[in-house]
Amino acid sequence: MFDELNDLYQQVILDHCRKPRNFHELPAASRSAQGHNPLCGDQLKLFLALDGDTIEDISFVGSGCCISKASASLLTEFAKGKTKADVEKMFGRVHEMVTTGKIEGDVGKLAVFAGVHKYPARVKCAILSWHAVMAALHGEVQPVTTENEQT
Amino acid sequence: MSVSKNVDWLALRKDFPILDQQVHGQPLIYFDNAATSQKPRVVIEALQHYYECDNANVHRGIHELSNRATSAYEAGRARAARFINARTAEEIVFTRGTTEGINLVASSWGAKNLKSGDVILLTEMEHHSNLVPWQLLAQRTGAKITYVPITGDEGILDLSKLDSLLTRQVKIFSMVHISNSLGTVNPVADLCARARKLGITTLVDGAQSAGHMPVDVQAIGCDFFVFSGHKICGPTGIGVLWGRQELLDAMPPYQGGGEMILSVEYQKTEFKKAPHRFEAGTPDISGPIGLHAAMDYLDAIGRDRIWKHDQELANYAYEKLAALKNIRLFGPKTGRAGLVSFLLNDVHAHDVVTLADQAGVALRGGHHCTQPLMHRLGVESTARASFYFYNTKAEVDRFAEVVKEIQKFFGQ
Ligand SMILES: Cc1ncc(COP(=O)(O)O)c(C=O)c1O
Questions:
Q1: Min Cα separation B327/chain A (Å)
Q2: Which of B33, B90, B180, B247 has a CB 3.0–4.6 Å from the CB of B388, allowing a cystine?
Q3: How confident is the model at residue A141 (pLDDT cuts 50, 70, 90)?
Q4: CA B98–ligand 1 middle distance (angstroms)
Q5: CB of B133 closer than 6 A to ligand 1?
Q6: Are the beta carbons of A77 and A21 closer than 8 angstroms?
Q7: Is the separation of the CB atoms in B98 and B209 below 8 Å?
Q8: CA-CA distance, B190 to B59, in Å (whole number)?
Q9: Is the ipTM of this complex over 0.90?
Q10: Which CATH code is given to the segment(s) B3-30+302-409?
Q11: How confident is the model over B204-225, as pLDDT tens digits?
């Protein structure tokens, strides 16, 4: 019945949504940021342990739909061990990919989110954790929301 | 014997051009009626006729078209009065919808009648539109807000607490008639009677009731009643605030401008009486005209029959869903209005809605503008199927199949 949806709910996404990785609080965190999606009331919180500009460890907690949970889970996998600049660069690519479907450069496993652009109501879900990680890296204290995300 | 047998419900579907289409290659099943209803052809034609034949500004012109527009606009007011059994048409104020109606009362009545230490009584199941205007008023005046609690997932008001909540400090009790998230039908006549004994003003949010059941504001015994046109087969942008004449006449204006004045000088203005006092500027003229057609349409079917039909569908859907495993249902087990809210274990409401949409079924997923209620229930969101008279049992059957498939998709 839902064959058409396989590009949105790719196996990797379903797997990460059922078994999110790095899904816990991080006592050693030096930064954290909250993401909020006002459309659905979803909340997630990211924790980062930074060593200089390098993300030593990263985790998240919260509730959300399959897309937002999988996105946060895959984000933490990607970001561990990366620098602030690496994450910023990838944020740009992911943003482009989930809004237009275009993949520029190597996005690795994150390519599974390319299908999201066909579901405008769900772009916010895929980008929420990325806004949160950017906020954490920039030391912002206000919770980020996807309210102003243009979809 | 069922009342709904007297109506050819299937034939009524033909009055709604929008229902006859496919979505993602599947026949559309529109189950998002609590958000907004679809519009029958007679309403669309009434709007078209107005713009093609009678369009002019109201209350200002002397020419023929202006006379026609004014009388059609005012006929809408008289029709709205009959729709809810108001005593006179002067008790009907046109607004943009339920939200604006409540804001009007909170701003105008509230500013005049509330002071620091007073209490605004609401219920835990209110829509944001019956919460936020009161919070703003409370911030301005120093009044406090208290809430009638609900009983858990069944979402019934816990009336054992009411006596202790109805204190002498309470100035207004504002309550939803039918909860858009739970389907609970509140005993508003009883609640208003209890408030009235203590001299407490009452407002009933009829957004979900006005087009679905017979409504008689005098029998309910409230002081204000509000609803939206777009949820009862009418156009968007028009709604009704009903208030008792003596209350409306004593309230200060809400907005200033043309239409609402008797005379204006550089330093002072004399205002018209209600309802015109509250309708500043050129109003939505086509709105009451479309709404008029919608009210005629609904009452030709009979809101008692519509109510019966909606309840039958909701009970049918509730039973079908209750038979599934790994599902949590919200709202009363019996006597529910025409909607069902649910959650599948470990599947987020938005995922349910995205999948259902792929199967042609339009649901709503989210907090339904009742975030405090969601938190009270310990959830972020629910999925909701909401019905109207043009929905069928066959559609509910298909919907239940789709829900089962969604469970399978997520490996349950
Ligand atoms: C119970 C209830 N109250 C108020 C509203 C607000 O109505 P509107 O958005 O038309 O002003 C709604 C509709 O969303 C509702 O269901």
A1: 16
A2: B33
A3: low
A4: 6
A5: no
A6: yes
A7: no
A8: 40
A9: no
A10: 3.90.1150.10
A11: 999 999 999 999 999 999 999 9
